[in-house]
Amino acid sequence: MSNFNEDLAEIQDLNLTYLLVAQRLLKADYTMALMRLKIDDAMGSQLLSLSTRQLGQLARNNQFLFRLCLEDSEQVSQLVDNERDQGMGGIHASLLMATVTPITSRPAAEAR
């Protein structure tokens, strides 16, 4: 049971770290942060409006609040198994990540 509690604590720590970094990115360069976080304007505004208490409350979840941008194992292979990489890994990763569809807010009718 102790491993479960440790895993849960680590997930919650990661969630809080993610939320704090997301807020910091949004405050520094809102438009760039929306692209990097792959969120829409409504989600960006919502994250910025959260207090520290609310961030902590949201982070205390047993699920990750973020998702991996790489959608399949082929994308991972493309990033790590590129034999021709000559210092271009960062650019290649950026291009690959840019193709991932951003998470958008659901319309009000779907949210019910």
UniProtKB/TrEMBL annotation:
It holds the Pfam family FlhD. The keyword Transcription regulation applies. The keyword Electron transport does not apply. Keywords: Activator, Bacterial flagellum biogenesis, Cell projection, Cilium, Cytoplasm, Disulfide bond, DNA-binding, Flagellum, Transcription, Transcription regulation. InterPro entries: Flagellar_FlhD, FlhD_sf. One of its GO terms (molecular function) is DNA binding. Gene3D superfamilies: Flagellar transcriptional activator FlhD. Functions in complex with FlhC as a master transcriptional regulator that regulates transcription of several flagellar and non-flagellar operons by binding to their promoter region. Activates expression of class 2 flagellar genes, including fliA, which is a flagellum-specific sigma factor that turns on the class 3 genes. Also regulates genes whose products function in a variety of physiological pathways. It comes from the Bacteria. This is Flagellar transcriptional regulator FlhD. One of its GO terms (biological process) is positive regulation of DNA-templated transcription. The lineage of its organism: Bacteria, Pseudomonadati, Pseudomonadota, Gammaproteobacteria, Cellvibrionales. Coiled coil: none annotated.
